[in-house]
Amino acid sequence: MNLMIHDLSKEEFNNLFHNLDENTHIISDTGNIKSCIGCFGCWIKTPGKCILKLTI
Known about the structure:
Layout: E1 2-6, H1 10-16, E2 24-28, H2 41-44
Parallel strand pairs: 1-2
């Protein structure tokens, strides 16, 4: 599996990466990505998933 994280607009992303295979997981910024506060809950309690619902 390949992981791609980006903050491009949908149009910019499609212009640059139009031939991705089905093994690529894409995470894009929809305005909801917040900064990590370093609590390590994603490592200990819920592996790979943030435990906080940040509304900052």
